[in-house]
# Entry
Amino acid sequence: MKNAKIILSVILVLAMVLGLAACAPSKKDKEAADNVAKLIDAIYVQEWNEKTDEQCAAAKAAWDALTDKQKDLVEGEEADPDYFGRDTGDASKDDPLNKDGIGKKELLVVSFGTSFNDSRATDIKGIEDALVKAYPDWAVRRAFTAQIIINHVQARDSEKIDNVKQALDRAVKNGVEILVVQPTHLMHGAEYDELVEELENYKGQIPTIVVAEPLLGEVGADATIINADKEAVAKAVVDAAVKSAGASGLDKLAADGTAVVLMGHGTSHTAKVTYSQMQTQMNKLGYKNVFIGTVEGEPEETACEEVIKKVSEAGYKNVILRPLMVVAGDHANNDMADPEDAESWFSMFKASKKFEKIDCQIEGLGRIDAVQKLYVAHAGEAIELSVPQHVADLIDAIYVQEWTEQTDAQCAAAKAAWDALTDEQKELVEGEEADPDYFGRDTGDASKDDPRNADNIGDKELLVVSFGTSFNDSRATDIKGIEDALAKAYPDWAVRRAFTAQIIINHVQARDGEKIDNVQQALERALKNGVKTLVVQPTHLMHGAEYDELVAELKNYESKMKIVVAEPLLGEVGADATVINADKELVARAVLDAVVRSAGVRAMSDLEAKGTAIVLMGHGTSHNAKVTYSQMQTQMNKLGIKSVFVGTVEGEPEETACEEIIKKVSEAGYKNVILRPLMVVAGDHANNDMADPEDPESWFSMFKASGKFNDIVCQIEGLGRINAVEQRYVQHTADAIKEATK
# Structure
């Protein structure tokens, strides 16, 4: 009997050993599982590359080829059987919103993302659907920031979601002109900052990009700062918690000893104060049984242990755990609600043994109607801003000094977009250079001007080169005045125009449909028309930087035609401030005669008798030709006119700065001032830098603010309209023609 028992025991042990051996994974099974784990780990990365699509497909194919036994063996750095095996819902209920055919206006919804299908379809798609419904004229598209999640969904469900770069490249490819980006992020945190940084790379490729506010709006300085967005979300999430709990209200839950714990993500970013602000908001609403926590425990008081302590000390015996996250994804399902994970919030609350009942509501904010409406409102604000912003961006795009093959189309597009705005929208146009005045300011009748850009030039051309102005009346009076005088004096020469400022050329073309040649275009036109002799008359005041640049450009054409450059208005510069010439004397006398005429007096002595100083404001320059302004002051002094002071916008030379001129005029005892430009054209500088009463930095405002003067009058008249000045240009041109034809 004893031997029989021994034999039976041996048989049982052998059976167990053989059974265990049969159950143990084979080397082949382990290798197959390890291969899948390796393939999963390879796509569990944040960077997309050209192999990603292929790697996703390979990982899924390898998984599908495993037996159930092998699938249970999958284990890698990130890989586990749940990667492909966990049921997270029906992916077909989702829409990746990644189609082309976008049109000119796109609303791009950017989310971190989730691989939980039901949550993605309910929370993220819920927001997207609300935006689609609210803005049917905008093409709504999706992008996720988490490539890890994009790869997971693609590999497991064959649903391909764009990352941010792919979505932006798609927008560029589709010719999107206005892109409004609505982040579903909770706050202005690290992800929001990274998104904004990436969008910067597409400025210029997409004309207008406007980023809407995240869900909770501006962060605020400290934990006490709350806003309407935080209040709306606080009410919405608490109402949803109460509804899901089947309670009649939050007070009823409190009376039953139930606390609501809202678990956010947490962050080391300065925006972490948002969680403290949400607790402040709950307290302010009287929600005493609502507690804010975070997975990351940042801020520190939001760590799970701290929240458990607060809830317990407040006397609550029951707890509802709910995510304070847009999506009920991995954090909600695992970090919050997983009963098998000892570090989940459910497990930690349970392990504390301080609570009788712990319920989990795995519901994201994105499915709440009030939250969706808040996103709709944020997107609406951005859309409203985007239209005038688009016009501003189009203006800024043509506010450049270089002409390109796209310039004509850009000018037309900017004007068309401006014309489509309402009066209210026009007032909102604001860019780096753009403002409502770009198209909206009345500067006179452009039809009175002549761009002088016709062909049929002949073999002799007189090209008048000016910096230019977008002020129509000044252009027609000052620049055209000189051109007309030259056309009258030299009827055998074809007079044509060129501006050196492409910024101004574009402005006039966009606003008024008047197309003026730049210097290169004018020279190419001359070549095309067979010009043999070209006399160039600059309307520049002096031999400064613009004159030098013009001469340098003309050198490129000297082998193709005979070119002679006439003197600028004030002739040769001279060595120092004491050097003057006939040109400077003539211009000094001419501008003083114009001052007297515009002031309605007989002579300068009448103005002096009234204690009136004349301040002539030039441009100024860092070029060595800046001594010209000092020479003009010398010239005035030599004429015996002590009441004239020469200044410059740029304050170069230093003694010509506005502050210095105010000091000189005041010390000389003058109580009244006439401001007048010492410029060929009364354009932007004369109208704005000199005469604008609304600009505290204008000369008018600065003279007024000094409190030293009784009366300040602005004469907004350029030198180009003065007959004596026009005739001086005629003389300079005569000298050049003589040189060109000898």
Q: What stands out?
A: Residues 17-22 have pLDDT under 50 and may be disordered. The chain has five domains: 2-85, 228-325+329-362, 377-440, 446-565, 582-679+683-716.
